[in-house]
């Protein structure tokens, strides 16, 4: 795509404002059956998106429309597409806001990306994973990319970020010793480059879960009990708190958070402290600017349970009067007051696998269908499956505790374990 021509055509169109996002993906893909390479390929993909803005009614409103420009589009076709976007933008009436300003100079944040080295690390890591007769790796796919994202707008912003992005998809088989029953587990892990320790930990843990799932009993009707979360399902709770500080949800009156006030009333356990950061080790989201050209800076969203800063897209940030806001990609949550061992004391259910698990950002409702959990009670551990966990953050967060130990999931650096003292477990077996 000829970006210079596209910029020229947008300037000539007379549009009130405009922005271009040019996303290039140069990558390698590997497909393994067991540990035998089945196929591999290279890819070079470019997506160019244009957004056109029109100022309406003497600056009272701002309309916008966007579309992806096909790489095969001719110059005449591009001019026509821009004209169509201008027409569509005039049909939209949002309260006026300004795009992120720039200084008219191109800025580049170029990271070294070696597809060969990253690929070697992934393949070596997968081949070194321990396997057994009763549990092994069925297949896996590795996707390694050098991402090149350039953002340009009519206000003088011109930023280019080059960064690595990786994804590993793994299918694991677990079977009984008699080999008369077998199940599959799926894992998808994302990162910047290859995090060998994290991959080994997650895959070995999944294999153990597969073995335990084959021995699981029906979850009993437990009612309200303490519940511990120690896998990536816990991220749903942190996304709930993150959403409360989203400028769009605040403007739409979905979030009731107020700066300087507790995000949730009545929290008596650990108080959450959450920070948006520009950089996390091995994150696939380490950018210099967000998708609208706003510089990304470290800032507290929530500190000791108190709302500190809203974040978000330019439109809603402007509506809230936030000039230095940006979208959020990397999050750090501080550890809590207790160790993992302390959070695993007494009677509790540790839920590790779900068919589906969600924490609604609007209502705070917690809902998940249990595939595998460990019911710790009376000095013994019972492996269980089935039933559900439910509750609401407004009640559950009153007695919520985080581990001091941390865990890194791509763009989320969070406590490794989170415990709620009161959640409802609806089982499919008898009483405990």
Description:
The protein is built from 9 helices and 22 strands. The chain is α+β, with helices and mostly antiparallel strands. The protein folds into 2 domains: 3-212, PmbA/TldD fold; 216-432, no CATH class. The strands form 3 sheets. Strands 1, 2, 3, 4, 5, 6, 7 and 8 form an 8-stranded mixed sheet that branches. A 6-stranded mixed sheet has the order 13-12-11-14-21-20, covered by helices on one side. Strands 10-15-16-18-22 form a 5-stranded mixed beta barrel. A hairpin with a 2-residue loop joins strand 1 and strand 2 (36-56). Helix 1 (3-13) crosses helix 2 (75-89).
At a glance:
The protein is of the alpha+beta class. It has nine helices and 22 strands.
Task: Looking at this protein, list some descriptive labels.
PmbA/TldD fold, 432 residues, 8-stranded mixed β-sheet, 6-stranded mixed β-sheet, 22 strands, alpha+beta, globular
């Amino acid at each position: 795509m000829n970006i210079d021509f596209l910029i020229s055509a947008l300037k000539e169109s007379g549009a009130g404002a405009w922005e271009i996002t040019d996303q290039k993906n140069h990558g390698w893909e590997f497909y393994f059956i067991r540990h035998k390479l089945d196929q591999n390929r290279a890819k070079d993909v470019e997506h160019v998106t244009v957004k056109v803005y029109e100022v309406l009614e003497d600056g009272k409103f701002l309309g916008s429309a966007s579309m992806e420009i096909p790489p095969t589009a001719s110059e005449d076709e591009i001019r026509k597409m821009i004209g169509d976007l201008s027409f569509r933008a005039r049909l939209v009436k949002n309260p006026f806001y300004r795009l992120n300003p720039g200084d008219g100079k191109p800025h580049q944040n170029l990271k070294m990306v070696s597809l060969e080295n990253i690929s070697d690390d992934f393949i070596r890591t997968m081949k070194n994973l321990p396997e057994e007769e009763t549990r092994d790796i069925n297949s896996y796919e590795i996707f390694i990319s050098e991402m090149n994202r350039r953002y340009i707008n009519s206000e003088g912003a011109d930023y280019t970020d080059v960064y690595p992005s990786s994804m590993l998809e793994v299918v694991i088989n677990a079977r009984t010793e008699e080999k008369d029953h077998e199940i599959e587990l799926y894992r998808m892990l994302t990162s910047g480059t290859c995090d060998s320790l994290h991959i080994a930990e997650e895959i070995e843990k999944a294999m153990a879960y597969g073995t335990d799932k084959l021995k699981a009993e029906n979850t009993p009707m437990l009612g309200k009990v303490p519940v511990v979360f120690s896998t990536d399902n816990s991220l749903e709770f942190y996304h709930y708190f993150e959403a409360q500080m989203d400028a769009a949800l605040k403007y739409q009156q979905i979030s009731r958070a107020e700066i300087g006030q507790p995000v949730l009333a009545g929290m008596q356990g650990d108080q959450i402290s959450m920070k948006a950061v520009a950089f996390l080790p091995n994150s696939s989201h380490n950018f210099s600017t967000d998708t609208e050209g706003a510089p990304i800076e470290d800032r507290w969203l929530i500190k000791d349970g108190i709302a500190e800063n809203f974040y978000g897209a330019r439109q809603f940030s402007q509506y809230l009067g936030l000039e230095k806001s940006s979208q959020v990609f990397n999050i750090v949550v501080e550890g809590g007051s207790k160790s993992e061992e302390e959070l695993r004391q007494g009677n509790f259910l540790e839920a590790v696998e779900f068919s589906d698990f969600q924490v609604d950002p609007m209502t705070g409702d917690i809902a998940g269908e249990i595939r595998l959990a460990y019911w710790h009670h009376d000095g013994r551990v019972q492996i269980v499956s089935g039933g559900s966990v439910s509750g609401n953050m407004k009640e559950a967060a009153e007695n919520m505790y985080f581990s001091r130990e941390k865990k890194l999931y791509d763009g989320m650096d969070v406590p490794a374990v989170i415990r709620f003292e009161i959640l409802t477990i609806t089982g499919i077996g008898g009483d405990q």
